[in-house]
Amino acid sequence: MLARTAWATAALLVGVFAPLGVLGTSPGGLAGLGMLGLTIGALVTAVSPPVRHGMPARTRTAALRAGALAAAIFFALFFTVSGMLATLSGALTAALVVVFAALALVADLRRSDHRSRPRTNDVVAAVISPPPARPVTELSLDELCTSWRRSYFQLLVSRDASARRHLVQRRQDYLDEIERRDRSGFLRWLGSGARPGGDPGPYLTPRS
């Protein structure tokens, strides 16, 4: 609910004030801002993980989207604030920006907390069903992905230092084996923003 409120507020501010900001900017200023926005987008694309790590071309579309989004955010912020300053007082503009930033921050924190909180059933299953003791080379890709996810929840509930060290090493073994068998799929997963408890399975090459 809070996230929708933040997005609705952002859409309202941009829709009302950004056109005023564009109209109030000279043609020369628009050209300069256009070059600056493109530069920002290019820099974000260049420093994104898919480009820095030399990932396959298909995964680099994520980098291009990130660059385009960064440029769009720059234009929206600049013209919105410019339009607000042209029609409202500086104090009111600052107050609106602070309120929106606070809404966005709180919404993001709540969303992150919700995503990172393990489901009870997953934690129980992790405790009852420990990772296979077999060498990782004997596990199928499906078993490797399942064991990787299960070990994350085991790590969350484990309080024994020795057990935690074993789990950390085991998780590294799972990742190394997945990368060895399907490096392209492994890199696709990393490029998608891989999470500690995420499932790499959908990004791996299907086996016949």
Task: Outline the structure in words.
- 76% of the residues lie in helices and 0% in strands.
- It has 208 residues and is mainly α.
- The protein folds into two domains: 115 residues, no CATH class; 84 residues, no CATH class.
- Helix 1 packs antiparallel against helix 5, helix 2 runs antiparallel to helix 4 and helix 8 crosses helix 9.
- The longest helix is centred in the middle third of the chain and has 28 residues.
- The radius of gyration is 23 Å and the shape is elongated.
- The two termini are 43 Å apart.
- About 3% of the residues have low confidence.
- Keywords: Membrane, Transmembrane, Transmembrane helix.
Give me some keywords for this one.
transmembrane helix, 208 residues, 76% helix, single chain, transmembrane, elongated
SS-derived structural category: mainly alpha
Number of structurally distinct domains: 2
The share of residues in extended strands comes to under 5%
The mean pLDDT is 76
Low-confidence stretches: 124-129
Radius of gyration: 23 Å
What is the N-to-C succession of helices and strands?
Answer: HHHHHHHHH
> What's the story with the biggest beta sheet?
none
Give the overall silhouette: elongated
Count the strands? 0
Helix content: over 70%
Count, helices: 9
Distance between the termini: 43 Å
Task: Provide a short characterization of the protein structure.
With 208 residues, the chain is mainly α.
